Amino acid sequence: MHTRDTRRARRAARAALLSVPLSLALAPVLSSGPAAAYEPLVEKQSVTIPVFTTQGGETIPEMTLGWESYGTLNAARDNVILITHFFSGTSHAAGRYAADDAAPGYWDSIIGAGKPIDTDRFFVIAVDTPVNLGVHNPTVITTGPATLHPETGAPWGMDFPILTIRDFVETQKALLDQLGISRLHAVMGASMGSLQAYEWAATYPDKVERVIPVIGSGWADGDLIAWLNIWGAPIRLDPDWNGGDYYAGTPPLRGLAEALKLVTLHAQHPEWSNGVFGRAWADEGRDPADGFDHLFQIEAALDSAGAARAATSDANHFLYLCKANQLFYAGHGGGLYDGLLAIEAPVLLIHTDEDLIFPGDAVRETGAIIKSDGTPVEIVELQGTRGHLDGVVSIAQAGAAIRAFLAR
Amino acid sequence: MHTRDTRRARRAARAALLSVPLSLALAPVLSSGPAAAYEPLVEKQSVTIPVFTTQGGETIPEMTLGWESYGTLNAARDNVILITHFFSGTSHAAGRYAADDAAPGYWDSIIGAGKPIDTDRFFVIAVDTPVNLGVHNPTVITTGPATLHPETGAPWGMDFPILTIRDFVETQKALLDQLGISRLHAVMGASMGSLQAYEWAATYPDKVERVIPVIGSGWADGDLIAWLNIWGAPIRLDPDWNGGDYYAGTPPLRGLAEALKLVTLHAQHPEWSNGVFGRAWADEGRDPADGFDHLFQIEAALDSAGAARAATSDANHFLYLCKANQLFYAGHGGGLYDGLLAIEAPVLLIHTDEDLIFPGDAVRETGAIIKSDGTPVEIVELQGTRGHLDGVVSIAQAGAAIRAFLAR
Questions:
Q1: Does B161 have pLDDT greater than 60?
Q2: CB contact at 8 A, B27 and B98
Q3: Which entry of A191, A194, A313, A394 is annotated as an active-site residue?
Q4: What would the pLDDT profile of A30-40 be if each residue is shown by its tens digit?
Q5: What ipTM describes this predicted complex?
Q6: Percent of chain B at pLDDT exceeding 90
Q7: pLDDT of A73-122, one tens digit each?
Q8: Ramachandran assignment for B132, one of left (phi > 0), alpha (psi -120 to 50 degrees), beta (any other)
Q9: What angle do CA B223, B278, A171 make, to 5 degrees?
Q10: Could B225 and A299 be called an inter-chain contact, meaning their C-beta atoms sit closer than 8 Å?
């Protein structure tokens, strides 16, 4: 069954698909469609909140976060679109830092001059979240367990306060306040970014004019809570994790890599794993039947992806992100549906029924609750073979709907 | 949002559902429907194969396996139905070992006097697989890494040969040969049991008269291969696993418990996790927002289920089972579809579209391939909220179809 020809065909197919991000579940991707990348070079900036108080009542001195923007803030400061990022994402939503960057920001296909989120018209801004996964990625600026407590000079570790999606929103609001921006033309984000978008609209209905949640629902349900627990298990099992106290020693990279393998697979769809890899072996001549270290190709690919991503990530940050997502329901602190009912801004929901993390039913239920008191809700379904990840790599399919929604 | 009433209602719902096996993904269950349990007490027996040669060419001296049967073998020895078990299952398919057993075997709802698999007519036999997960369960008799090599007197550990689903079939054939049984009226199994059923029909088309694969497809595809890798990751990360060499020390129970949590969740469906647990807290007064050890109820339930199951299981056996499942495609050793095309016996495929481990598309594709050369294939879809697990707990829905299929 493993003829050289089918192997070659599979490798060609794999190579083609590796040009979109196998290496991470929800990662920066090459732009799709005919449009060029957002043209001006992007400059990462940073904001420091001198004292940030969490929803849980704890304080974080010198909360510093990275941000970037595309387009120009108008004089009225009313042309602002906030992009909130996903679990393993960053504020790099569009454009390139240098002309020879291998790839632009993850949603470059829809953000730029003349694109659906038109930077000739809008000032688009994106912010690295606190406890950002990619804390060791040089383009990420964040504050979390791996960063230094300004008073002790040592990493916070697990003494860092637990944060919620609402806290993420408050950091973004602090930045916008510093920039003198009091209203958002729209807030849009994918996956964990959609949770921030719901939270913005639920918490500040007077500041948010439009909401575009992509591949996400209005609360973390029991199933997602359980999966997020299981995502973190490999980290907790790695002896190098040491209860989160590893900054003076060896970081738990094996556990983190396994956790990222799981996220990668969970964010995909069987059509991808079967179509690209099938039952191909990782190494010709090393039959997986002959040893536990003889792998199938998809096992080796996930190993590589997990290890590559782990190199710029932090295990404690991963666990803090899992916790923030588990704790989420729109309108933090009220009844389960109160936040969704508080949303006044029109909503454009974008999702795919092939999503294993935020299933279509949960998204439709979210839409129905928001709509139940008269708030306009429009739903666009993406097509593709990548599952959850289609919300990143296939977003251009919703380009016309996004353009029209922003123009209304 | 966490009122006492909604908590109470959720607890009642949880208690009701815990009477079916939350504690393991695919475990013995209470019978459903009006029929009583298979009545005569069941006696576990054992068979020893003096020298078993694996498909990989290695030999295992004294392969001893448990088996049990229900009904009476007729004089012609042609009334035999073989039941093959799932990943975390055993040969205890029906009946009770003692009158006060809490629950009968897992498919008791369809096996017994007057039931669809009628023990007044059929001799139903089930065999513990080699490398059975529940090697420390006193009712399981198996041979694998945790059992003693007869020559060294020490556990085999990772020196135990890698086995395939075809090897499992060969152990069952050796038992049937010893009993003088040369033909099967039918072979039926769920999940990993369905793989054995396909393999029986593909390898011995002259010995198998009917096949009933439940919740399984004709090959492990790339997606399942990847998930099986990830199922095993927590074990490999547990320092007590020690490369599989732990029988003289502490077994990797934490890793094994995490692996079993993952299997448990994967074999369920969101309707279950959301319907039973939702966002309820594990402990009143311990808000999950206040600490990493403050859990949601579903996290605590999965922790308990994983730990309980780990106590009677073995980590290396888990990894050998993952490998056997990864290596599976019907007709071991030929082309990918050759085995399915070799099946001559009529096939009754039972599955559910809510299955996350063996999705409906894969099952339908399997059926289409078998049918393509004229072999009769009938498909029954189960309804339910338990996903993959409905193939065990809701099998009675297919009772009439099974009865009719066996009578044809």
A1: yes
A2: no
A3: A191
A4: 334 445 778 89
A5: 0.91
A6: 89
A7: 999 999 999 999 999 999 999 999 999 999 999 999 999 999 999 999 99
A8: beta
A9: 85
A10: yes
- How many Å apart are CA B182 and CA B80, to the nearest integer? 9
* pLDDT score, position A35: 54
Q: What is residue B16's predicted lDDT score, i.e. its pLDDT?
A: 36
Chain B residue with minimum CA distance to A241: B237
Contacting residues for B158 by C-beta, under 8 A, at least 6 apart:
A292, B145, B243, B244, B245, B316
Which chain B positions have a beta carbon within 8 Å of A323's beta carbon? 288, 292
Establish if B279 touches chain A: CB-CB under 8 angstroms.
yes
Give, for B347, the enclosing helix (H) or strand (E).
strand B347-351
Per-residue three-class SS string for A196-231:
HHHHHHHHCCCCECCEEEECCCCECCHHHHHHHHHH
Q: Over chain A, what is the mean pLDDT? A: 92
Q: What chain A residue is nearest to B244 in terms of C-alpha separation?
A: A292
With tokens 């018209």, the residue in question is A121
Active site residue A388: yes
Residue B137 has pLDDT above 80, yes or no: yes
From its phi and psi, is residue A278 left (phi > 0), alpha (psi between -120 and 50) or beta? Answer: left
The bridge status of strand A123-127 relative to strand A59-70 is antiparallel
Mark yes or no for CB contact B162/A239 under 8 Å: no
Mutate to test the interface with B, among A55, A225, A236, A326 (most CBs of B within 10 A): A225
| pLDDT single digits (tens) B50-67 | 999 999 999 999 999 999
Residue A39 CA to residue A99 CA, distance in Å, equals: 9
Give the pairing of strands B45-53 and B59-70: antiparallel
- Which residue in B191, B194, B217, B394 is the catalytic one? B191
Q: Distance between CA atoms of B196 and B201, rounded to whole angstroms? A: 9
Q: Judge whether B382 and B391 are in contact, CB under 8 Å.
A: yes
List all residues 6 or more positions away from A8 whose beta carbon is below 8 Å from its beta carbon: none
Cα–Cα distance for residue pair A225/A227, rounded to 1 Å: 6
List of chain B residues whose C-beta atoms are within 8 Å of the C-beta of residue A362: 270
Tell me which of A389 and A7 has the higher pLDDT: A389
Establish whether A355 is a catalytic residue: yes
Residue B105 in contact with residue B111, Cβ under 8 Å? yes
What sections of A4-150 are H helices per DSSP? 4-18
Are A158 and A243 within 8 A, CB to CB?
Answer: yes
Q: A258 vs B230: CB contact, 8 Å cut-off? A: yes
- 């738990």: which residue's tokens? A252
Let me know: does A351 contact A366? Beta carbons within 8 Å.
no
Mean pLDDT, range A395-408, rounded to an integer = 98
How many Å apart are CA B102 and CA A318, to the nearest integer? 42
pLDDT, one tens digit per residue, over B251-287 is 999 999 999 999 999 999 999 999 999 999 999 999 9
Active site residue B182: no
By the 8 A CB rule, do A6 and A83 touch?
A: no
* Whole-number Å distance between alpha carbons of A209 and B161: 64
Q: How large is the angle between the packed helices A315-327 and A192-203, nearest 10 degrees?
A: 50
User: Tokens standing for B308?
Assistant: 């309980």
- Please say whether the beta carbons of A11 and A75 come within 8 A: no
Q: Which CATH superfamily is domain B4-407 in?
A: Alpha/Beta hydrolase fold, catalytic domain (3.40.50.1820)
DSSP A61: E
